[in-house]
Amino acid sequence: MPGPAWGEVAPTDVPIIQANIRALLVDLHAQAPARVTPDVVLAHDWHRAIYQGTVSPPGMHCLGAFRGSADRDLVDCPVSIGNARGEVLAVTPAARDVAGHLRHLDSAHTAAVGSLDQLIPVATKPTTSGQLEAVVALAAAVHSRWVCIHPYANGNGRTARVWANWVALRYGLPPFVRIEPRPDGLLYAQAAARSMGTPPSFRDDATLTYSLFLDLLAQKP
Q1: What is the CATH number of the domain that holds 206?
Q2: How much is the mean pLDDT over the chain?
């Protein structure tokens, strides 16, 4: 069964999405001190918030719902990454496997923040280069893993960038990864492409994303 038809964002939706993201970041900043447990349910809420009031999604049922969900449009929804010439550059995990990948991400993410929470108290910032690098590494790892899994029919990159900023805000850093539009230049596209794993393991590579994120943070005023 083919997935829902959801291509590029309509030009009229771009300012709506940007306004939604600004509001979302304000909320994430306010919520950061609570240090809630990372859970994909958070991302489902963000996905819905990003596209609130837009016309690009094929239906509300596609928002906050991952591939492999019971919805008839998502239960068997393949996603591939291509270029302008129509060439397939990468494939994503099958819809039936997305839930399992997300459970594993939840577990790994929870363990990682559990360790960092002990090193960096609430309402403080990293105090050593090692702590700073650990936060950026986690932001890069979660972003890359989300891009690799590609849970949604669309909007995965935006949601991955929200995850990166969620990590940053949790540990007192500014939201240094631009969400809409995505960061300038080819390096971000290359980093995202490096994050795409190959069958059958779909093991992502976050090394280039980590280097890019360090540069983006250094550029933040």
Answers
A1: 1.10.3290.10
A2: 93
Q: Is the pLDDT of residue 3 over 80?
A: no
Show the DSSP H helices in 120-206 as ranges: 129-149, 156-170, 186-195
| Cα end-to-end span (Å), the chain | 48
Residues 78, 82, 85, 87, CA torsion sign: negative
User: Are the CB atoms for 146 and 8 separated by under 8 Å?
Assistant: no
Q: State the virtual CA torsion across 15, 211, 139, 116 in degrees, nearest 10.
A: -150
Q: Contact at 8 Å (CB) between 111 and 156? A: no
Rg of the chain over all Cα atoms, to the nearest angstrom: 17
pLDDT at 59 over 80: yes
Decide if 28 contacts 169 (C-beta within 8 A): yes
Is 191 inside a domain boundary? yes
What is the residue range of 99's domain?
11-219
Number of domains making up the chain: 1
119, 173, 217 from 193: Cα distances, Å: 32, 26, 21
Residue 2 inside a domain? The answer is no
